[in-house]
Amino acid sequence: MSFWIDALGTSVTYHDAGGIRTRAIEAGPADGEVVVMMHGLSGHAEGFVRNVRAFGEAGYRVYAIDAIGHGFSDKPADATYHSPLFERHLLDFLDAVGAERAHLIGQSLGAWTGWRVALSHPERVRSLISATGAGILLSDAASQAESQAIHRKVAAVTNKALEAPTRERVRARLEFLMATPESVPDELVDTRWTIFNLPDSRRSMAKMTSEQTGEENRANLLREEDLARTRVPTLLVWTDLNPTVPAATAEKAAKLVPGARFELIEQAGHWPQFEQPEAFNRIALDFIGSN
């Protein structure tokens, strides 16, 4: 079945977020509590194509967005793609849609962005869900080494797809994210291949990837003291087959966050919301419904 069947009833819209033209897949009643879904590095809103309608039908006003530098959103060539840029874009997007507060659901880079906003502007965040979230750095030596290795691995597989974005290389990048190759439909490959070959993508995305995964941006990682001072309701959703941060690390991190919950989804890789949408939607809707 086409994944666009899951998106029937949603809308593709564009918003001016602080001067950045920002694409969103959105659904739900205008007066519903706002939910913003944020993809990972080199991703796009279609990472949540199997979730938006379910949240809209549950009564939320939901937006799956293309982050700055990604998808069909603007990709300024002169920007420095460190965490503060993504944080500012998210806050500007909340302003653009008139959301004083929102539930933030981030996957990988999107979770890192959402968590930084939860720390800097907790008054804007109703709840936070980190799905296989990037950016967590525990203090023990093994976790420190693991974090460095993950950054290098993610940069390598992403840059390989970007430097010569054939369908074969794009498929390899997507298969890296999934538990099984069969989880990557051809239309997802075609969607990302189209995005990677946009003129502004060719100009800016390699720079964005290099800067986002670079050493200077590691100053913005979420350290143990950041986890401990988190004051918004927080859920960490992980998987048994995540190719980046292992579930054991995420479970340790969850114990440092006051009142946080940890949930494990099995038979999924880096995209639990795409590979196991029914389980993800059930867990996430239960969590935000209680906050």
UniProtKB/TrEMBL annotation:
Which GO molecular-function terms appear in the entry?
Answer: hydrolase activity
Q: Which residues form a coiled coil?
A: none
* Signal peptide extent: none
Spans traversing the lipid bilayer: none
Work out whether the entry's keyword set contains Hydrolase.
yes
Per its UniProt entry, which superkingdom is the organism in? Bacteria
- Pfam families in alphabetical order: Abhydrolase_1
This one is known as: Alpha/beta hydrolase
- Boundaries of each AB hydrolase-1 domain copy? 34-277
Q: What keywords are assigned to this protein? A: Hydrolase
